[in-house]
Amino acid sequence: MTDRSPLAPASFPELPPIDGVALRVARARYKAWDRCDLTYAELAEGTAVAGVLTQSRCPSPEVEWCRAALTLGKARALVVNAGNSNAFTGNRGRAAVEAIAARTAQHLGCDPSDVFVASTGVIGVPLPIDKAEAGLDAAFAAEPCDWEAAAATIMTTDTFAKAAVTHAVVGGKTVSLVGIIKGSGMVAPDMATMLGFVFTDAAVAPELLQQMLSAANRRSFSSITVDSDTSTSDTVLAFATGTAGNEPLASMDDAGADAFHSALSDLCLQLAHLVVRDGEGATKFIRIDVEGAESDRSAHRIAMSIANSPLVKTAIAGEDANWGRVVMAVGKAGEPAERDRLAIRFGATQVARDGLALAGYDEAPVAAHLKGKEIEIGVDLGLGEGRATVWTCDLTHGYISINADYRS
Amino acid sequence: MTDRSPLAPASFPELPPIDGVALRVARARYKAWDRCDLTYAELAEGTAVAGVLTQSRCPSPEVEWCRAALTLGKARALVVNAGNSNAFTGNRGRAAVEAIAARTAQHLGCDPSDVFVASTGVIGVPLPIDKAEAGLDAAFAAEPCDWEAAAATIMTTDTFAKAAVTHAVVGGKTVSLVGIIKGSGMVAPDMATMLGFVFTDAAVAPELLQQMLSAANRRSFSSITVDSDTSTSDTVLAFATGTAGNEPLASMDDAGADAFHSALSDLCLQLAHLVVRDGEGATKFIRIDVEGAESDRSAHRIAMSIANSPLVKTAIAGEDANWGRVVMAVGKAGEPAERDRLAIRFGATQVARDGLALAGYDEAPVAAHLKGKEIEIGVDLGLGEGRATVWTCDLTHGYISINADYRS
């Protein structure tokens, strides 16, 4: 077990229960470990669901199952397996997902398509159906648990349990949103990151929930990267139990929709940042702001090119104000850029402008900034109004140790 | 200075002189080091030139200079500076290139546009004109040197001097091709890699030389990657002095054109492989073959996605047969792929087929293969006839040490 990330929050947050969500965990023993690795969330009847799933061309059967079930917009349960992603396992993998959905549906008396399943861990080993079924039965019989136990149970190589909370006032009712998430490597989600689950007691129509989640995803899960690698299992699901008693939100024009959307976006961003803070081997949390690009999309691509550059990430690890590597990463992005208009800053200190180092540039404040744990890189392309912000972490010996020694 | 790469050839190759090429080196002292860092190649009158240059949107002034000069197709000299790339240095950088070309042109009595200039090293520091001019004068006065001295003088973080030779028979004359190259990090050339120079005594029209070099580049320099980062200075130039006395080649239909093209392609591939063998921190030379893709272009993108995946590269470093990471890298490439048709091999051993691990798959021969220094990964997508081969190296603690400690 790796030490807790130096970028982790001091403690697990205080989280309220969400009415209509009952959490239970159990030991399915998908690996040779003595810890809970199966999470079961029972959801009130009438719960709406939305989701964003990996864009990988080789997705897990869980992702395919969720993609199909999401079209119906309703959920009664979520089952999460840790230690085995069940990806690239052919028919046997599909059979395992179907068995989990069937057993849960039988337990609840609902349709199998009301059961959402996500798995994370090693690729290529079919999820053992007998262990899953025994684990489920144990979970059905278990006492309900708290958020921290659930957040810890979905972890794999994560070094700390991750969760966040936000609130919104919708039609006079205060609603709560709680999210749990796991992920630390293979993080460059194309639509979503690893496994993340959001629960709210608000009443929201599934189509609107989907619209809001997709928008929130673009500026959160799709704006982070640890190592440029995209998982076959990336899944973010949002469940709205509707137990808060608010007039159901069905359109962005409804009273309270803006507030809820804002709270959901804030929650997703908090969760995404927690994943970066647990990036494998990370010692620095890096924010990259790109402005002056030809479009927001172009700014995002340039920001991700910087965030994924091994040379930028190792320079930050080495606390080296090597802004030339930022120029390199802008140049390779393939997006419109003009060398002689480019400006770069580290923290609050401008280091280059109009295509060359600033006259009389003093490296001292930059060196001081780089010694901290929270690093900011700003790039102004001087071309237009496009802007984007992404977050990443540094690339260290810790990443190599974790991934060159991890046995499948 | 880092130790010589464990993947380096046993010794520097035996290389013939190329008639019409005179090499000299000198100490310009671009950095605080006591070694030659300026290379000057004088070329016979009538030398044809072709080149491929970085696709970076933030190229060095040297790249812009060469791009303009290449349109004329003729060369009398090459000047290479090591220790300072002169990139992102504004007008002062451009002035340095112009000064070098002017002084060399004056020395030779030729046009400045006949002088090709390339620089490699730190980004953002203008190349000091006084040092360049003093270095040039010293080079003009120096005794001619051999290929090994020139190949060593263009090095920066390279751990060994790199060169290769091939021959071809053109119209009854045997012609020679010699190349030198440098590069070890910031290697994911989009058109060319770092700095590479090919010299031949063959007579070849510049348009045909360009056509052949561009084709050779696609399967050599554009098919390697060390760290996915693309330099602002990538330059490959080919010079044909025409002193061999062959009937000048002007078209691919000319006798001997195929033989010359083949020799040039072989030389470029040898040079490209040497760069991978000196990849920063590399301990394994990795060949990735992708077949069965919808097109060659699609195969190339999938192969590069595998070659650039930190998780694949760290798995190889750890000698871990983690083929699930190869699936992940195929899936994230965004190219057509069907999980249930995918087949993967390590070395000669098939590990997965039709979307799942091979029944009775024995890991022993794969583990033995991964203990070697030459690793092969094969992927068959089962979709079409597209194929591509790319080369990379593993990602190790050595890469982090070199790049997190390297001071700009």
UniProtKB/TrEMBL annotation, chains A, B:
What Gene3D superfamilies has UniProt attached to this entry?
A: ArgJ beta chain, C-terminal domain, L-amino peptidase D-ALA esterase/amidase
The EC code for this enzyme is: 2.3.1.35, 2.3.1.1
**Pfam families associated with the record:** ArgJ
Name of the top EC class for this enzyme: transferase
Protein origin, superkingdom: Bacteria
List, alphabetically, the GO terms of the cellular component aspect.
Answer: cytoplasm
Positions bound to substrate: T156, K182, T193, E280, N403, S408
| Keyword Cell wall biogenesis/degradation annotated | no
Q: What is its main location?
A: cytoplasm
Site label Cleavage, positions: A192, T193
tRNA processing among keywords: no
Q: Enumerate the SUPFAM superfamilies for this protein.
A: DmpA/ArgJ-like
GO biological process per UniProt: L-arginine biosynthetic process; ornithine biosynthetic process
Task: Give the pathway annotation.
Answer: Amino-acid biosynthesis; L-arginine biosynthesis; L-ornithine and N-acetyl-L-glutamate from L-glutamate and N(2)-acetyl-L-ornithine (cyclic): step 1/1; Amino-acid biosynthesis; L-arginine biosynthesis; N(2)-acetyl-L-ornithine from L-glutamate: step 1/4
Q: Where is this site: Involved in the stabilization of negative charge on the oxyanion by the formation of the oxyanion hole?
A: T120, G121
The entry's localization annotation reads: Cytoplasm
- Give the catalytic activity: L-glutamate + acetyl-CoA = N-acetyl-L-glutamate + CoA + H(+); N(2)-acetyl-L-ornithine + L-glutamate = N-acetyl-L-glutamate + L-ornithine
Database matches in InterPro entries: Arg_biosynth_ArgJ, ArgJ-like_dom_sf, ArgJ_beta_C
- The entry's active site is T193
Q: Which GO terms describe its molecular function?
A: L-glutamate N-acetyltransferase activity; L-glutamate N-acetyltransferase activity, acting on acetyl-L-ornithine as donor
Functional summary from the UniProt entry: Catalyzes two activities which are involved in the cyclic version of arginine biosynthesis: the synthesis of N-acetylglutamate from glutamate and acetyl-CoA as the acetyl donor, and of ornithine by transacetylation between N(2)-acetylornithine and glutamate.
> Assembly and interactions?
Heterotetramer of two alpha and two beta chains.
**Which family is annotated?**
Belongs to the ArgJ family.
Task: Please report the name of this protein according to its UniProt entry.
Answer: Arginine biosynthesis bifunctional protein ArgJ
Source organism phylogeny: Bacteria, Pseudomonadati, Pseudomonadota, Alphaproteobacteria, Sphingomonadales
